UniProtKB/TrEMBL annotation:
<dbReference type="Pfam" id="PF08447">
    <property type="entry name" value="PAS_3"/>
</dbReference>
<feature type="domain" description="PAC">
    <location>
        <begin position="267"/>
        <end position="320"/>
    </location>
</feature>
<dbReference type="InterPro" id="IPR013656">
    <property type="entry name" value="PAS_4"/>
</dbReference>
<dbReference type="InterPro" id="IPR001610">
    <property type="entry name" value="PAC"/>
</dbReference>
<dbReference type="Pfam" id="PF00563">
    <property type="entry name" value="EAL"/>
</dbReference>
<feature type="domain" description="EAL">
    <location>
        <begin position="505"/>
        <end position="757"/>
    </location>
</feature>
<dbReference type="InterPro" id="IPR000700">
    <property type="entry name" value="PAS-assoc_C"/>
</dbReference>
<protein>
    <submittedName>
        <fullName>PAS domain S-box-containing protein/diguanylate cyclase (GGDEF)-like protein</fullName>
    </submittedName>
</protein>
<dbReference type="InterPro" id="IPR000160">
    <property type="entry name" value="GGDEF_dom"/>
</dbReference>
<dbReference type="Pfam" id="PF08448">
    <property type="entry name" value="PAS_4"/>
</dbReference>
<dbReference type="InterPro" id="IPR001633">
    <property type="entry name" value="EAL_dom"/>
</dbReference>
<dbReference type="InterPro" id="IPR029787">
    <property type="entry name" value="Nucleotide_cyclase"/>
</dbReference>
<feature type="domain" description="GGDEF">
    <location>
        <begin position="352"/>
        <end position="496"/>
    </location>
</feature>
<dbReference type="InterPro" id="IPR043128">
    <property type="entry name" value="Rev_trsase/Diguanyl_cyclase"/>
</dbReference>
<feature type="transmembrane region" description="Helical">
    <location>
        <begin position="12"/>
        <end position="31"/>
    </location>
</feature>
<dbReference type="InterPro" id="IPR035919">
    <property type="entry name" value="EAL_sf"/>
</dbReference>
<feature type="domain" description="PAS">
    <location>
        <begin position="67"/>
        <end position="138"/>
    </location>
</feature>
Length: 757
């Protein structure tokens, strides 16, 4: 520290000695010499003075050393860099923080310059010039500068206070107190980068940026906003914007803005606008309150707007394809079930009987085999046209699949016998109409043929009491088989009492109940792979190891399990086995990345304690919950969409991954994309089957993938059966794949062997 002050330990020791000598001389000058001329008194006086001087010197030395140590410890404990340099730039003092940066010690740094430690002459010269200029001006300055950390070779940034002074020997020196602001500097640089990134993102995303001053009603926006809305900046921008909102949408936009301003509810809305040039567009507008006044009232709103006209047009196309058969344009199977549900409700409400008819084409396979599927498709279209021509506006005509059609005849009569008679009459009329010769042209090979077919019709009359859509379809299907087995060319229409023929299902239910107790339900795993055919997980599919009938696939028992609510207990056993398998995988580095998906039945989710029971099951296993995927279909939403959404959100909060299964087959799949907290959608296998050959299906699947990408969702294609489907799906950037092309569902033992391959 003497290098800082100019004082030394010797100087401190000589101070009391000097004072003593001066005092002794003063005694001789003040008092008569005769008093000191006695030898004994003089010796005593000199000894006393020198003794006091020695004691005083020792005490001052100890005080100096103690204070020196306190100051030194204080400086060394400070995280900021503390430096003292002479005019030549050599260190005369530094604390431990500086020594650490220079990979040295405070003692070894004294008398050396920056260059000695950094070997960076340019930096050392800069530090020396800066210090000398400040010492020459002899004024305190605050500067920002950088230095290299010799431990990590990284550059550190400092805010330094530099104070020039002169020590006790009048030597010019400079004290430097430097605070490390590297992290702050890096954060600022990152913030600047993020600001530039945001500007680029907004440009790339084609989103318009706006801010609305509520007090002045002024709207500021970027150029993209003007391009979307077609309104240039003016004093009346908000008024002009409001005038462009589609009349039918003004109320909901006003309500959304009011909810934002008064209740701070999210402003996130899609609506239509008519641009000044007359073009009608769809926009997606989002915003939030950015500033409040002293009373807590909103002052400034900020938001972004996006033109989603093309997406809406594509959505309409996809919805059309999703709800209708892409070949005949008739109602598809999924929509049929919805229509049938509504008919059941109407029958109950009006106390009337309705009818459901199953139709199957005879000799259709012969046409396909003889002339090819192209001609078969032509015939199906012609049959669909005749069915529509011979149906009323109230009837629902659907292609059920293959060469099967279903017609719903609602509210036939309030008398069961009359309703049965009318349904029989109408069905026989259809048989006659369809049995007339069809003229089919093949444009590909320039061939025209006349083809005669017949149809079989089976049906059921019902009044909606104690009947489900699944049961109705099953009974009508049984009626169709009865009709096909008969040699009489007429329809077979039965009453609701035909369900007695399903009594065999009662034994099945008994077996299910016992097998739940015996833990006979187990999981098979179907591998899930990515675009590189790398295994990324598996779907757990339930199988029933029946005590007498052997291994049963879900098709043989799942409907009965659903209807009887046994599916809830079966689902729990599947979840337990899936978690156990996931725990095994996560105990090994080679498999801990794998995911496992389980299907959730609507009946499971509709249970009031579903989430609590689900998480209680998971709590028995120490697993990464994000590797567990639950697959749901939109069926779970039909009973109570708000309840189902709330439960899915709770699962999501626990880290569970949510997948929307059978996407595209439902009548409102797109509607649920923004309502459910989903991470993934699975394209239904029915689309994959026709993907390689049907351009309409290919368009729809491509639209679904693009839509999922816009929502940031993972896309899985299930039912991939061949290399052609796989290759084409990869071209449209599907993320993951399942299907027999890779592997059928296999047992846990076989899956272990699969991992080794």
């Amino acid at each position: 520290m003497h290098n800082v002050t100019g004082y030394s330990k010797l100087k401190v020791a000589l101070i009391p000695l000097t004072v003593s000598v001066v005092g002794l001389i003063a005694l001789f000058l003040i008092f008569p010499p005769s008093l000191f001329f006695t030898p004994s008194l003089m010796s005593f006086t000199i000894a006393a003075v020198l003794g006091c001087s020695a004691i005083t010197s020792l005490m001052l030395h100890r005080m100096f050393m103690k204070n020196f140590q306190v100051i030194s410890d204080l400086f060394h404990s400070i995280d900021d860099a503390i430096i003292v340099k002479d005019y030549q730039g050599d260190f005369t003092f530094c604390n431990k923080r500086v020594a650490y940066l220079y990979k040295s010690s405070p003692e070894k740094m004294v008398g050396k310059s920056d260059y000695y430690f950094t070997k960076n002459k340019e930096q050392a010269d800069f530090f020396l010039t800066s210090a000398q200029e400040i010492m020459n001006r002899f004024q305190k300055e605050v500067v920002y500068e950088s230095s290299m950390d010799t431990n990590t070779s990284e550059t550190r940034h400092f805010s330094s206070i530099k104070i020039p002074y002169r020590d006790t020997q009048n030597a010019l020196k400079i004290a430097i107190f430097a605070r490390d602001i590297t992290e702050v500097t890096c954060l600022k640089e990152e913030a600047d980068k993020n600001q530039k990134r945001l500007e680029h993102v907004l440009d790339v995303s084609e989103e318009g940026l706006w801010e609305w001053n509520i007090q002045t009603n002024q709207v500021l926006h970027n150029k993209r906003w003007e391009n979307i809305i077609g309104i240039e900046s003016s004093q009346e921008t908000f008024v002009e914007f409001e005038a462009c909102i589609f009349p039918e949408d003004k109320a909901k936009v006003g309500q959304a803005l009011d909810s934002l301003l008064t209740r701070s509810q999210p402003y996130n809305i899609e609506f239509r606008m008519t641009r000044p040039d007359g073009e009608v567009i769809w926009v997606w507008d989002r915003g939030r309150v950015a500033e409040f006044d002293e009373n807590g009232d909103p002052v400034l709103l900020v938001g972004i707007i996006l033109d989603i006209t093309k997406e809406k047009q594509n959505q309409q196309k996809v919805e059309r394809l999703a709800y209708h058969d892409n070949l005949t344009n008739l109602v598809n199977r999924t929509q049929l079930e919805v229509e049938l549900e509504e008919t059941i409700a109407a029958s109950i409400q009006h106390n009337q009987y309705s009818a459901i008819l199953f139709l199957d084409l005879d000799r259709f396979k012969l046409l396909n085999d003889s002339y090819g599927h192209h001609m078969g498709d032509k015939l199906l279209n012609l049959v669909a046209t005749r069915l529509v021509e011979h149906s009323t506006e109230e009837m629902v005509v659907s292609r059920f699949g293959g060469d099967e059609f279903v017609i719903i005849y609602p509210l036939v009569d309030d008398n069961e016998d009359k309703a049965t008679f009318e349904a029989q009459r109408y069905a026989n009329e259809l048989i006659e109409a369809i049995s007339k010769t069809f003229f089919i042209e093949n444009e590909i090979h320039d061939v025209s043929i006349e083809y005669d077919i017949s149809i079989s019709i089976g049906g059921l009359v019902f009044n909606g009491q104690d009947i489900s859509t699944g049961c109705l379809l099953q009974l009508a299907d049984l009626a169709l088989y009865r009709a096909k087995a008969s040699s009489v060319p007429q329809a077979f229409i039965f009453g609701i009492d035909m369900r007695d023929e399903l009594t065999h299902s009662s034994q099945l239910l008994k077996d299910i109940r016992q097998s739940i107790l015996d833990l006979d339900f187990l999981i098979y795993l179907q591998p899930k792979l990515n675009r590189d055919e790398t295994l990324i997980g598996a779907e757990a599919l339930v199988r029933w190891q029946h005590p007498t009938r052997g291994l049963l696939a879900p098709a043989e028992f799942i409907d009965q399990a659903e209807e009887s609510n046994f599916i809830v207990k079966i689902g729990k056993q599947v979840l337990l086995q899936a978690c156990e398998q996931l725990s095994i995988w996560q105990s090994s580095d080679s498999t801990k990345h794998l995911t496992i998906a389980v299907n959730l039945s609507a009946k499971q989710i509709w249970q009031s304690q579903f989430v609590d029971d689900f998480m209680l099951t998971l709590s028995s296993f120490d697993i990464d919950k994000s590797k567990l995927i639950v697959e749901v279909t939109e069926t779970v939403l039909l009973q109570d969409v708000n309840d189902a959404t709330e439960k899915m959100n709770r699962l999501k909060a626990y880290g569970i991954t949510i997948s929307l299964d059978d996407f595209g087959t439902g009548y409102s799949s797109l509607n649920y994309l923004h309502r459910l907290p989903i991470d993934e959608i699975k394209i239904d296998r029915s689309f994959i089957n026709d993907f390689a050959d049907d351009e309409q299906v290919k368009l729809m699947v491509t639209s679904i993938v693009n839509l999922a990408n816009n929502f940031g969702l993972n896309v899985v294609a299930e039912g991939v059966e061949n290399i052609e489907q796989f290759a084409q799906l990869k071209e449209i950037n599907v993320d993951a794949y399942q299907g027999f092309f890779f592997s059928k569902p296999i047992s846990l033992t076989d899956f272990k062997r699969y991992l080794l391959t």
